[in-house]
């Protein structure tokens, strides 16, 4: 009869809850769990990368604590809910930025209409904790209140710049979220 593994042979601090499950496994039966352990390790590494990416975005001032709150929506609405939220935000923001750009290209600028679009994007960035873009939209609103085409142009370009930087970071977040989801038990 094969001997079970000892606790020291299989202890891994990343998986403390999993240890007791494997204490009674024989060497032969343990090999059947290696793919499962690999998935557990992969998920943990991906979650750590995601956490570090979001932390770096906070440290750089791109997002604030509201972003972490929005990120937890996946715990309630499903593992892909945050990806859907980000995708909707990106689509709506692109459309609003395009509309604001077109409004500035008009010979006579409708500042009231621009303000409505600006408030829409400011609201969504504030709710999602997209801090630097929310600040830029605040600057745009001030420029709109001043009825200054030049200030609006500068503020809108800043918003576009912040949005482009966010696009890259959102791509990474969504890629990590999808990889974590694909490594979930029952999803592979």
From TrEMBL:
Domain HPt, chain residue ranges per copy: 84-156
Keywords assigned by UniProt, alphabetized: Cytokinin signaling pathway, Transferase, Two-component regulatory system
Membrane-traversing stretches: none
Any coiled-coil regions, as ranges: none
Location relative to the cell: Cytoplasm, Cytosol; Nucleus
Function description: Functions as a two-component phosphorelay mediators between cytokinin sensor histidine kinases and response regulators (B-type ARRs). Plays an important role in propagating cytokinin signal transduction.
Transferase is among the record's keywords: yes
KW Transferase (keyword) present: yes
Domain notes: Histidine-containing phosphotransfer domain (HPt) contains an active histidine that mediates the phosphotransfer.
Gene Ontology MF annotations: histidine phosphotransfer kinase activity; protein histidine kinase binding
GO cellular component: cytosol; nucleus
Organism of provenance: Trema orientale (Charcoal tree)
Protein's recorded name: Histidine-containing phosphotransfer protein
GO BP terms, alphabetized: cytokinin-activated signaling pathway; phosphorelay signal transduction system
């Amino acid at each position: 009869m094969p001997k079970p593994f000892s606790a020291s042979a299989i202890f891994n601090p990343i998986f403390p809850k999993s240890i007791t499950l494997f204490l009674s496994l024989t060497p032969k039966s343990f090999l059947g769990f290696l793919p499962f352990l690999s998935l557990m390790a992969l998920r943990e590494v991906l979650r750590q990368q995601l956490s570090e990416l979001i932390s770096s975005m906070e440290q750089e001032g791109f997002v604030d604590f509201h972003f972490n709150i929005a990120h937890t929506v996946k715990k309630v609405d499903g593992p892909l809910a945050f990806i859907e939220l980000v995708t909707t935000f990106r689509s709506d923001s692109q459309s609003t930025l395009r509309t604001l750009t077109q409004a500035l290209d008009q010979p006579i600028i409708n500042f009231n209409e621009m303000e409505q679009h600006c408030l829409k994007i400011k609201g969504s960035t504030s709710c999602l904790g997209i801090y630097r873009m929310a600040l830029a939209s605040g600057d745009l609103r001030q420029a709109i209140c001043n009825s200054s085409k030049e200030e609006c142009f500068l503020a809108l370009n800043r918003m576009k710049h912040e949005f482009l930087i966010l696009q890259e970071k959102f791509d990474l977040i969504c890629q990590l979220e999808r990889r974590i989801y694909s490594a979930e038990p029952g999803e592979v």
